[in-house]
Amino acid sequence: MMNFFRKISMFMQGRYGLDTMNKVLTALVFIIYIINFFVFNRTAHFVIFLINLAIIAFIIFRALSRNINKRSAENRAFLKVYEPAKNWVRFTIRRIKDRDNYRYRKCPACKAMLRVKNKKGTHTVRCPKCRYEFKTKI
Ligand SMILES: [Zn+2]
Question: What is the pLDDT of residues 30-45, one digit of tens each?
Fold first, then answer.
């Protein structure tokens, strides 16, 4: 068994391996795989299956690639889109969970999102980030 893992680690030496982009793509493959259970049109089902295979081939290609600079650059470009999207989803989930107790308002000066207690009326809010004071209605 030891020998097996040593062989794998020797094989992976100088190769790119897994990064965030590959992990997200792997998750995407599983999601598409599950969605495809509910696609009953045979042609559409087959096309989705092929797309998934192509994504898997792309993941393997990236993981085994020896062009580490290029793969890192791909990952950096991916993170530029992925991180804001992930943060937006997280923030939206929190906003929905908080909706009974808090409302969110943007600071007019620095654009930071501020959480304001959900009490009817006009409130004076001071932004903790830039100390700007403004009035907001709830
Ligand atoms: Zn501010």
Answer: 999 999 999 999 999 9
Q: How far is the CA of 126 from the centre of ligand 1 (A)?
A: 8
Signed CA dihedral, 62, 65, 70, 76: sign only: positive
d(CA 78, CA 82): 6
pLDDT tier for residue 67 given thresholds of 50, 70 and 90:
very high
**Average pLDDT, stretch 83-98?**
95
What domain range includes position 23?
A: 2-97
Task: Check whether residue 82 and residue 115 sit in a common domain.
Answer: no
Q: Look at the pTM and tell me if it is higher than 0.70.
A: yes
Among 56, 72, 69, residue whose Cα is nearest residue 19: 72
Which residues hold their Cβ within 5 A of ligand 1, which is an ion?
Answer: 107, 109-110, 112, 127, 129-130, 132
What local confidence, expressed as pLDDT, does residue 71 receive?
97
